[in-house]
Amino acid sequence: MRAKRLLALGLFFLFSIFALAQAEDGKIILKKSVQRKSFKDAFLKVDLEKQKSGIKKKISLELFQKNYPEFSATLVVIQAPEPAKGISFLTWNYFDPEKSDLKWYYLPAINQYKELNDEQGRKYEEQFGFSMEIFAVNLDEAEHKLLGEEAVEGRVCYKIESTMRNPDNPHGARAITWVNKERLTPEKIQAFDKAGKLIKDFQLLESRKYLDFWQELSGVYQDLVKAQVIKFQIIEAQFNQNISDELFLSTKLKPRAEEVSKSKSK
């Protein structure tokens, strides 16, 4: 994933050095958290529950990811509910912030295949609720400050404040992240608007160690502006399984989706 994830003259000098170290340490910790997963490819089975206005919507999906030198490719294929089975989304996330990501989707029910721009991609991700970029904070677009340490559900965490250079950032003007000191997982994230009102909240419920890193397994995300709650549960995770490159080609998106949609549940 891209990191684009804070008196006497002598005393004043020492305080300035300390403040600078806090800012640098905050960004370094967040970057370590974002980049902690060292795998070539990944396969996840995920169950989502989206609740809004008293209506619950459950989605099961399979997620495939593979890292390349210049980008990370992700394929999401919806497995349930039945009417949505086979709907597929493919994304190439480029590590170069100057290069636009590429996104495609395929709807087997109407045989529709389309390349998406960023705005369209975000719309479909939000509609189906599968985006794992809860806050999508670009670390280079914010000032980070290490506030100290604080426990979350008994787990000791670094508490880091991130202030966006653009206060009108749609993800919030300010965010506070609690990073597990041992596992480097984000145990809790809160985002606030420029008036200081809480607008987003994420709580990690469970994580497990795979290879040499800790993977999030379940959590709850609340968007207080949209009045919706998304719960996720990863029920299966596999890493470094030598996933075929063909899986991440846009030309293979349609035949795979058709195959999935035809395998109707009995």
In short:
The chain has 266 residues and is an alpha+beta fold. It contains three helices and 13 strands; from the N terminus they run H-E-E-E-E-E-E-H-E-E-E-E-E-E-E-H. It has a 13-stranded antiparallel sheet with strand order 6-5-4-3-2-1-13-12-11-10-9-8-7, sandwiched between helices.
Order of helices and strands: HEEEEEEHEEEEEEEH
First-residue to last-residue Cα separation: 37 Å
CATH architecture: Clam
Q: What fold name stands as the CATH topology?
A: outer membrane lipoprotein receptor (LolB), chain A
Largest sheet: 13 strands, antiparallel
| Helix run count | 3
User: Roughly what is the average pLDDT, rounded to an integer?
Assistant: 81
How much of the sequence is in beta strands?
Answer: over 45%
Major beta sheet, strand line-up: 6-5-4-3-2-1-13-12-11-10-9-8-7
CATH classification class: Mainly Beta
Regions with little confidence, pLDDT below 50 for 5+ residues: 1-23
Q: How many separate domains make up the residues?
A: 1
CATH level-4 homologous superfamily = Lipoprotein localisation LolA/LolB/LppX
Estimate the helix proportion, in percent: 10-25%
